[in-house]
Every structure is written in C-alpha cells, then in structure tokens.
Amino acid sequence: MSIAIPPKVTDRAFERLAEISRQAGEKKPLRVAVKGGGCSGFQYEIDFDAAEDGDILLEGHGQTVLVDSISLPFLENATIDYQEELIGSRFVVQNPNAKSTCGCAMSFSL
Question: Residue 40 sits in a domain of what CATH number?
C-alpha cells in the first residue's frame, strides 16, 4: 500500500489565508476536498472548516489547510495556490493527476 504525497501549499496561499484570518478576527482552516460531480467528473470544494479526525494538516505562516483522507489520493503532488486575475481572485488547485479540466478550473477528470 503506497502512501499519497500531500499537496504543496504555496507561500502566496498561506499569506492570503493569514490576511483573511486577520480581517475576520479569527483563524479558521481552509479545507480543500475532492467530491464527485462537476462537468468533468470530479470537483474541488474549497471552503473554511474545522479540522476533523483523519484530516491531513498542511501548515505554514501560522495557518492551516486541511485535506481529508479520501481526497488525499486525488490531490497527490498537487499545488494549492492563490491567484489574482482581472476577473477575480481565488484559491486554486494545480493538479498533475488531472487528465482534463473544465474552463472554471474547479472540475477535472482523472
């Protein structure tokens, strides 16, 4: 049985998470999960959440990103980043395991 390599979280993502925490006046972990659905078969769910038993904790800059054990194999070797573009800003997943992605970059297939 192989152990999945957790995703990497960029400094930019941790820094943005720290900024959000300062603005909100509380520190809340960011959860990155993979669920079935979306236009390509799987979709990323990125939201603020509390840690649960079995979560993988990715820590940096005093902040925490959570990945549940079921999502971990889908996110192996992925990078969680924060991007600012003309059309908006958001946390994104750059996933080398994805064979194709949707135009929204939140849905992918393996």
Answer: 2.60.300.12
Place of tokens 């960029």: 10
Is 94:78 a contact under the CB 8 Å cutoff?
Answer: yes
In a domain, 2, yes or no: no
Q: Is 3 a domain residue?
A: no
Q: What is the pLDDT of residue 58?
A: 97
Answer whether 65's CB lies under 8 Å from 30's CB. yes
- Tally of domains within the chain: 1
Q: How far is CA 51 from the centre of its chain?
A: 14
Region for 27 from its dihedrals, namely left if φ exceeds 0, alpha if ψ lies in -120 to 50, beta otherwise: beta
For residue 68, pLDDT over 90 is answered with yes
* pLDDT tens digits, one per residue of 8-50: 999 999 999 999 999 999 998 999 999 887 666 788 899 999 9
pTM of the model: 0.84
Report yes or no on 1 lying in a domain.
no
To 5 degrees, how large is the angle CA 93–CA 52–CA 63?
A: 55
Domain of residue 35 covers 8-109
